[in-house]
Specification:
This protein is mainly beta. 10% of the residues lie in helices and 52% in strands. It is rod-shaped and about 90 Å long.
Amino acid sequence: MKQILIILVALSCLLLFSCSEDSPDSPPQDSTGKLFIKSTPTGARIYLQGNDTGKNTPDTLVNLPAGTVNGYLYLEYFDTAYFSIPISANLITTEEIILSEDLPFVELTWDYSIRSGGDSVQFSFQLNQDLLMDSIVVSRPITIFGDYTKDRYVINNQLFVWIDQNGYLVKYYLPLSGSAQQFYPKIDNYLYRIDVYGQQAHGYQSSFYSFYTQQF
């Protein structure tokens, strides 16, 4: 009799346990996770499984199925950064991505034209990308005896675009527009040197230095 009672109690407990698991009131187990993704620099568009999430870094993506998710970050002037990240259920995964700049080295293409019957010269240059100009220094002869002067143009990070709205290369001139003079005196057999300082207008806005020399 005692053994029968023990068996009945055990069956009752098993039945209660089974019922509690099948109860509609039991909360479902969450099988999703979250992804907090950030980048350097910030503001990159987040694409997941080939779709635009509508979010920019830094931000959190929610309700992601457990497992590996694939996507990429897009930011103008930077290489597209692809990622493959494992997601765990009920956890927040953090991912930080450093973007690589997709800009060429700064290059200035120089030229000149002789004016006023051969007595004056005007320099010109074109860019290979948008630049923020800080200053331009022109070292040039002023007499046939080798006396030199320096023309300093302090531009204070003014934007110099490399193409216009129609897609054509923009040409800039020295002396700069608005200067007191339009041309430089042309002195033969002496060196003209132009030093340019500034930074890239896009990407990480790295500083640059460039120079040009010409002798007539």
